[in-house]
Structure formats: C-alpha cells, structure tokens
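User: Here's a structure from my thesis project, written as structure tokens. My advisor, Dr. K., wants to see whether a designed sequence matches the one we expressed. Can you design one independently, without my sequence as a hint?
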C-alpha cells in the first residue's frame, strides 16, 4: 500500500491509497459524503486479491485530503475533483462510487466519459432528491452508527443540496458512454423508488442488479453479494486476461488489437475524370521518406472513392484538428453531401483541400501497391502547410480522442 497525492479543482490536495500491482486493471473507489476511503477497506482488499489495482480516494474535506480554507464544498467542486484525478491516472479505471458519491461520479463522467474511465459502478445511488434525501443525508453525516468512518468537514452539509443535484442526473445519463452497473440493496439507507428507472434506461450501456435481501452499506461486513456482482461485471467488461487473435480466428479481435495504436485522422481528396471532387476519411496514414519526400495512405478497395484515388495523378491528405470531427464523420459516411457541407478550396494542382485543417499535404502520384483488401497509395509531397496552434483529432479503440495535457 502506498499513498498518492492528486491535484483537485482549484489546486486542492487530494489523498488516495493505492493497492495492488501497477500492471493490473485499475479501479477508482469513491466514497459518499461524511465517509472516507476507509469504508472501502474490505472491498479494496477483495479487489486486490482478484487481480485489480485499487485507488481509494478521500474526497475534499474528508480524511487525509485537504479541507479547503475557503470552505468550497459546492457539488461541482467535487465533480471537477474526480475529473482531475481521472486525468492524472496513468490508465482509465472503472469508477466504483457509493451512495451520493454516485452523483459525483455520474456528473464527472457525463462528458468525455470514454476519455476518462473504462466503466462505472453505482452502488445504492438514489435517483431522486428533495427534503427526504436531504434529511437522510443530514442523519448520515451526524450519526456515527450510520456508516461514518474517519474525519470530515461539517461545513459541507450546507452546500450539498440534494434536490438540485438529483434533478441533473437524467440529463447526464445519456452522455455516459461506458459499461455501467447500477447495484441496489433492499435494505439501503435510502428508500428506493421507481424514480431510478428513467435514469437507468437512459444509460447507453447500462445494466441493473437488485440484491433485495442484502444491506449494501459498505461499512458493514455484508459485502459478499456485492463483491460477487462487482467482480462478475469487471471480468466481463474489463477482463484481466489480454484478448488474443490468431490467424483464422475472428477478424474483429484483430481489428480491436490494431485499434490499440492511436492515430490521427485524415481526409484524402482528389478529383475524378470529370473534375468532380471526391474524398474519404482514413487513419492509415504515415510518412515514408524525407528524400525524396514521400508519404502513404491505405485505402479500402470497397470505398466509393477507391477507383478515383487509384488513378488520380494528384491527391491531397488533410490532417484533421479537433474541431473537424463532424467533417470526419461526413467523409466516412455514405450518401453524404461531403463537399457541399464542408469549407474547401483548390490547391496548386486544382485538388480540393479542406480549409482549417491541422496540416495539408498536396501530392503527385508516386506508386500504388496492393495490400489485401486495401491498396497503398504512395504520394510525393509537392507542397505542405500546417497550423501549429491547433490540436489534432485522434482515433483510438474505435473512438475519437483528443490530446490531454496533465
């Protein structure tokens, strides 16, 4: 076990306990208000035994994390803390959050979820707010018998407004494009209701488990049923064993393996024999030689522009920046008015180039080589221009990404 510091929202120091092997899949544990990371002790130990790396965090104003002198405990400060911690971790973890900590994790992952985490587990998270939840929270924060472990700053009670926070949950659910597990216990400290159904249904990749006869309070010793559900979810959604492809097996596995290589995104453009502009999205692109200046791009034989690009005397490779994701989708789809909805101009050889691109390479045809279900188009760079102030649009594991600067 080691201790680690993170920098949270506004520079607040956040303390976490790390357990397990650094090479194992990571799990970030988020407690609820009025608790500390100690509520996860049994869960963390079980996860490590199951081959997981655990990061158990103290929220601001709790345990060993900083208690801000200005008393900033508004809900969005907690949300930004979690986003900051996720951005500082070396790998994307599955986030496991308990009770009202689930609200924090939900809102933290409502945007850019695939960039920050690999999955989300919500344990006994209420789906509604109001005076009843506020009263229950007040009891929980002031009654040591109801699951408080460790030190916490009582100033947070006045800023954790249950009704306002819960009202934001339904709109957040559709943005959580992650495997998500919602676990509820029949003896939860918060009375359950049908209010959770719209939230659960709105999750893009969600599943729900009700353990009707189990009390899921994490400070009790009745965590066996919860651990069984949690480990089953982790093994299905974030397995420890690496997926393997062998010749002759499922080609999708090979595609997923190749998708582990992060790339930029380009649009290759040219004109057909009648002068009509054509183009397609491609991420199999690389430099080939500086002397002579050569680059290559791989084009699927089945693409609509393949025949034109095979024969074109000149073509351009437009390297996309983060604001051009809609353009990438447009040129990757079928039956799209690609150039009619895209800002472009003519290059030196009359080839269409896309305005605002991160980089543009205007090329003459150098060679074409066959490559299975693709062909390799090699171009000699006649002219190149780039915009150093923009950031690239990236592609990794089947999703668009962007650079993160920690």
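Assistant: Designed independently from the structure alone:
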């Amino acid at each position: 076990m080691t201790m680690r510091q993170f920098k949270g929202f506004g520079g607040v120091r956040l303390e976490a306990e790390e357990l397990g092997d650094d090479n194992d899949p990571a799990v970030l544990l988020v407690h609820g208000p009025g608790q500390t990371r100690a509520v996860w002790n049994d869960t963390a130990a079980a996860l490590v035994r199951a081959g997981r790396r655990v990061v158990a965090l103290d929220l601001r104003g709790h345990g060993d994390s900083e208690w801000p002198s200005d008393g900033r405990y508004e809900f969005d400060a907690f949300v930004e803390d979690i986003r900051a911690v996720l951005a500082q971790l070396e790998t994307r973890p599955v986030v496991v959050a308990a009770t009202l900590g689930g609200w924090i994790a939900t809102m933290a992952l409502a945007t850019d979820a695939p960039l920050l985490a690999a999955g989300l587990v919500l344990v006994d998270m209420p789906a509604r707010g109001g005076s009843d939840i506020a009263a229950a929270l007040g009891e929980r924060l002031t009654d040591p018998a109801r699951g408080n472990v460790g030190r916490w700053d009582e100033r947070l009670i006045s800023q954790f407004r249950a009704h306002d926070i819960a009202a934001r949950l339904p709109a957040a659910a559709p943005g959580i494009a992650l495997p998500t597990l919602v676990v509820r216990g029949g003896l939860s400290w918060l009375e359950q209701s049908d209010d959770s159904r719209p939230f659960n249904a709105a999750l893009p990749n969600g599943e729900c488990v009700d353990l009707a006869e189990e009390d899921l309070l994490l400070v009790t010793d009745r965590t066996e049923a919860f651990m069984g559900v949690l480990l089953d979810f982790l093994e299905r959604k974030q397995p420890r064993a690496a997926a393997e492809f062998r010749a002759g097996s499922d080609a999708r596995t090979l595609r997923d393996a190749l998708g582990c290589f992060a790339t930029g995104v380009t649009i290759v453009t040219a004109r057909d024999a009648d002068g009509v502009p054509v183009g397609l999205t491609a991420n199999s692109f690389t430099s080939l030689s500086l002397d002579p200046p050569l680059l290559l791009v791989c084009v699927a034989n089945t693409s609509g522009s393949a025949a034109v690009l095979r024969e074109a005397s000149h073509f351009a490779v437009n390297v996309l920046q983060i604001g051009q994701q809609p353009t990438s989708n447009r040129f990757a789809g079928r039956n799209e008015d690609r150039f009619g909805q895209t800002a472009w101009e003519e290059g030196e050889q009359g080839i269409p180039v896309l305005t605002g691109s991160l980089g543009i390479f205007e090329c003459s045809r150098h060679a074409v080589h066959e490559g299975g279900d693709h062909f390799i188009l090699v171009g000699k760079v006649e002219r190149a221009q780039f915009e150093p102030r923009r950031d690239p649009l990236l592609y990794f594991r089947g999703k668009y990404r962007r650079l993160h600067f920690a």
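When you compare it with your expressed construct, this may help: The domain at 257-402 is CATH 2.30.110.10 (Pnp Oxidase; Chain A).
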